[in-house]
From TrEMBL:
Transmembrane segments: none annotated. Keywords: Iron, Metal-binding, Oxidoreductase. The keyword Secreted does not apply. Belongs to the iron/ascorbate-dependent oxidoreductase family. Pfam families: HalD. The lineage of its organism: Bacteria, Bacillati, Actinomycetota, Actinomycetes, Streptosporangiales. PROSITE patterns: FE2OG_OXY (PS51471). It comes from Nonomuraea ferruginea. Residues 110-225 form the Fe2OG dioxygenase domain. This is Fe2OG dioxygenase domain-containing protein.
């Protein structure tokens, strides 16, 4: 079953690689640190991933309500399922994460090699926003790339869209989020169920606009660049975020 779904994904990705959509995504990514890449997976694979995500978040999420000094105190109000729980209960999500065809096409879009995240907790995480005011507030990620699969999302009048500021650097001792927002254009992107996007998350300040109604559920797959592997990385915010207990 899973083998068939992954095979469908690989075949689809090989076709997608021949389309003009890749060149457009590559340009968009270079300019904004963000590109919609919903064309990367067929509906059958999105549905199979969504089925696993929904059964996991319904059975095993942990509520978080945190603020981090490393990102200037911006809020994280959400429910998460950690990488270890996902790997225990889903064969599909880890297999999709490792798909060489998928990773290869991602590399074409971002313009450099895309590697599995060496820090396992950031490889894949499920996040659900479910109460009014829930948000994944302004932050950067430790590793270079995120591929986000949208499973559920309210319409934009209820929030849940993605905002980002490209070309910004994370100084953990002085995040200066407001300065980054004031000095640069802020892009906003509407996303919906079935969408996929890729972001350069270590140099793109980003957040999910707080929701006021509905439910927003995603699985975020994190990948590293070659330079990431040569950098000594601290993981304060992610260690606290993905801790087994909130
Ligand atoms: O939910 C999203 O679209 C973004 C999630 C995110 O930024 C993260 O998990 O680090
Ligand atoms: Fe992020």
């Amino acid at each position: 079953m899973n083998a068939r779904i992954v095979q469908e994904l690989n075949q689809h990705v090989r076709h997608a690689g021949l389309s003009g959509e890749v060149a457009a995504a590559r340009r968009e990514f270079a300019e904004r640190g963000f590109a919609m890449v919903s064309f990367l997976a067929p509906a059958s694979v999105k549905q199979a991933v969504a089925d696993d995500v929904l059964s996991l978040i319904e059975e095993s999420g942990v509520r978080r309500d945190l603020r981090f000094k490393e990102t200037g105190g911006t809020p994280r109000r959400m429910r998460n399922v950690t990488r270890s729980e996902i790997a225990e209960h889903s064969a599909l999500i880890p297999a999709v994460y490792r798909s060489e065809a998928l990773v290869g096409l991602l590399a074409e879009i971002v313009g450099e090699p895309v590697l599995a995240c060496p820090y396992e907790p950031e490889q894949y995480v499920i996040t659900r926003l479910e109460h009014s005011g829930d948000t994944h507030g302004w932050h950067w990620d430790d590793y270079s790339f995120a591929l986000v699969w949208l499973v559920q999302c309210p319409p934009p009048e209820h929030g849940g869209f993605v905002q980002c500021v490209a070309g910004t650097r994370w100084d953990k001792s002085d995040p200066a989020i407001h300065r980054a927002l004031l000095d640069n254009p802020i892009w906003s992107f509407e996303v919906g169920a079935g969408d996929l996007y890729v972001m350069r998350t270590n140099t793109t300040l980003h957040r999910v606009y707080p929701i006021t109604a509905g439910v927003r559920t995603i699985v975020n797959m994190g990948y590293a660049s070659k330079p990431d592997l040569e950098t000594v990385m601290s993981h304060e915010t992610m260690d606290a975020l993905w801790a087994e207990q909130a």
